[in-house]
Amino acid sequence: MVLPESMVPDTFPDPPVTPKDAATVVLLRDTAAGIEAFLLRRVLGMAFAGGMSVFPGGGVDKRDADADIAWTGPKPEWWAEKFACTVPLARALVCAAVRETFEESGVLLAGPDEDSVVSDTAPYAPARKSLVDREFSFAQFLADARLVLRADLLRPWANWVTPAEEPRRYDTKFFIAALPEGQRADGSTSEADHAEWRRPAQAIDMWKAGERALLPPTWMTLTELGEERTVAAAMAADRTISKIIPKVIREGRVLRPVLPGDPAYDRAVGHLDARPDDTLG
């Protein structure tokens, strides 16, 4: 995989930028042809990953850590163990995951009580816009709407950290969730110009054909999910989460990311302006 020019930094941050905490959610649904995932194509002019097809998600808001948020399902302590982070951060990550999914796709992983989930999100459209504008916190929205965050509708999937070479870095926790019955993902967000459901293998084939642009975390996640026959099977997967930090190497005049397990990973130097022979060993 070759990095698009828009993703190649002009200079190497020294020291590397500290990653910001973020959460992303892979919405899934079953079809006769197999499992499908929801993808958004980010607006080309976006500062980070412009033009790339991604899953809904974004950075953690400090208000996402509100300890008073109405919550059902695995406790923050459980999520903290899964993602190897502090309990307050785990609470914020789960809240950010549900909030960002609602803001970017219109899908709301919440319900009136611990046994139900909203089937029609249309009445919450004004609140969705207000959340995007940061007029109030997600906890306040849930309280006003008398809704409970359904942490049990999420499952931990992966943890990806942006390479040290990037000027904008994120420590992103990946979750998966089944599309709630009655809800639809609309992709109505100013950050995306296209939204679609794709079978993982189909999305990968479109990427290989140059019809879609995918970052390593996206195509790796799609590859893994493509091995699951149903959404229920994916949700039941017992995964061990560890941080995955790609490196960037130079091959002649081309830059490409390499992942742990690639023979070039251990040889990759943390500096983009190294000589090609230094990088390739």
From TrEMBL:
- The Nudix hydrolase domain is annotated at 19-220
Q: Which cofactor does it need?
A: Mg(2+); Mn(2+)
Q: Which CDD domains match?
A: NUDIX_AcylCoAdiphos_Nudt19
Sorted alphabetically, which keywords does the UniProt record give?
Hydrolase, Magnesium, Manganese, Metal-binding
Q: Matching InterPro entries, A to Z?
A: NUDIX_hydrolase-like_dom_sf, NUDIX_hydrolase_dom, NUDT19
Taking the record's annotation, the residue ranges forming a coiled coil are none
Which molecular function term from Gene Ontology is one that the record holds? Answer: metal ion binding
Gene3D superfamilies for the chain = Nucleoside Triphosphate Pyrophosphohydrolase
UniProt keyword Transferase, yes or no: no
Looking up PANTHER family in the UniProt record yields: ACYL-COENZYME A DIPHOSPHATASE NUDT19, TESTOSTERONE-REGULATED PROTEIN RP2
> This chain belongs to which protein, by name?
NUDIX hydrolase
What organism is this sequence from?
Answer: Kibdelosporangium phytohabitans
